[in-house]
Amino acid sequence: MNYIKIAFVLLVFVFFSGRVSFCQNAANKKEWKLIWHDEFNGKKLNKSKWNILTRETSKHGELQYYIPEEVYLQNGNLRIRSSKKDYGSQHYTSGRLDTKDKFSVTYGRFEIRGRLPVGQGMWPAYWLYPQNRDWMMEYVMQEAVANGKESSIPEFRPWYTEIDIMEYLGHEPKVFYATLHYCSFKGEKKSSSGKYTSNFSFADGFHIFAIEWEPDAIRWYIDDSLILTAKEGIPHTPHYLILNTAIGGSWPGSPDSSTVFPQYHDIDYVRVYQRK
User: Fold this and answer.
1) What pLDDT score does 151 carry?
2) According to the model, what pLDDT value does residue 148 have?
3) Nearest to 247 by CA among 110, 79, 122
4) Torsion angle (degrees, nearest 10) of CA 86, 45, 97, 201
5) Which residue positions in the chain have pLDDT lower than 50?
6) pLDDT in the model for residue 158
7) Residue 239: CA count within 13 A, CB half-sphere
8) Strand pairing partners for 177?
9) DSSP labels, the chain
10) Mapped to the 3 state alphabet, what secondary structure does 96-118 carry?
11) At residue 68, what are phi and psi to the nearest 5 degrees?
């Protein structure tokens, strides 16, 4: 009988602990106000919010050509399709979209619910990039020339930050990476990075990838669980959002005979909040 009572007490404790934890998460979210979002419930992508790229890219030795045909809405989701298809000089096509010149913000909570593609060579990502880097770089170049320090221009990039909310390699279906890239005042390229390993594949269902970017820190979350905090190199200028699936490149490597095409990267929603 005592064992039954103990088991009952433990069950009640676990139940209410779970409720308290849930309430704490809900209370934390009440501190944020929704300022921008897309639920992808229409028939066509809202082009007042998004740019869809047409671009051959080889920054990291990638193999895809980004084309608009690979970005569309289906069943209440944004779908980025990746195909094995010749286009221009490339042998694969995929999709990339961003909010450059349409929406950028300094600080906030960025929340994306997505289901990721899988397979050798797949490289989906959600990331933030500085909106005003062009004029900042022009200013730095003018100052460098005026002070006879042209040699410092290639190394010193004070605008450079990249906030990777999520990067994922298709051959590691249970792992994703969270990273802040930045330049120090000396022009050194640095990063803060974390690796999260789950007991499930991120290709099997939807999960919420989020960051909370504040003046003194950036925090990364997966399904509301904190996985990484960065406190150095925090940017303080507006950034815009990028969603894409790259194929191949120096990090994931090229697709091989095990990679199935087409691959689908589905996004249920994107929501951006700021502190009330």
Assistant:
1) 52
2) 67
3) 122
4) -80
5) 1-27, 153-154, 156
6) 58
7) 25
8) 167, 195
9) -HHHHHHHHHHHHHHHHHHHHHHHHHHHHTTEEEEEEE---SSS--TTT-EE--EE--TTSB-EEE-GGGEEEETTEEEEEEB---BTTBSEEE-EEE-TTT-EESSEEEEEEEE---STTEEEEEEEEETTHHHHHHHHHHHHHHTT-GGGTTT--TT-EEEEEEE--TT-TTEEEEEEEEE-TT--EEEEEEEEE-SS-TTSS-EEEEEEEETTEEEEEETTEEEEEE-SS---S-EEEEEEEEEB-TTT----TT--SSEEEEEEEEEEEEE-
10) EEECCCCCEECCEEEEEEEECCC
11) -60, -30
Distances (CA, A) of 174 to 115, 171, 201, 221: 12, 9, 5, 15
* 114-152 burial: b if 16+ Cβ within 10 Å, else e: bbbbbbbbbbbbbbbbbbebeebbeebeeeeeeeeeeee
Q: How many residues does the chain have?
A: 276
Amino acid at position 246, single letter: A
Check residue 83 and give its pLDDT.
98
Looking at 31, 162, 172, 188, which residue is catalytic? 162
- How much is the pLDDT for 145? 61
Residue 152 backbone phi and psi in degrees, to 5: -85, -10
The pLDDT assigned to 160 comes to 81
Report the pLDDT value the prediction gives residue 140, as an integer from 0 to 100. 56
Asked if 155 is an active-site residue, the reply is: no
Does 162 participate in catalysis according to the annotation?
yes
- Of 62, 111, 167, 212, the active-site residue reads 167
Determine the Cα–Cα distance for residues 212 and 107; give it in Å rounded to an integer: 8
**Which residue is associated with the tokens 């003018």?**
142
pLDDT at 255: 98
Report residue 253 as tokens.
């490597």
pLDDT at 136: 53
Sign for the CA dihedral angle at 55, 56, 59, 64 comes to positive
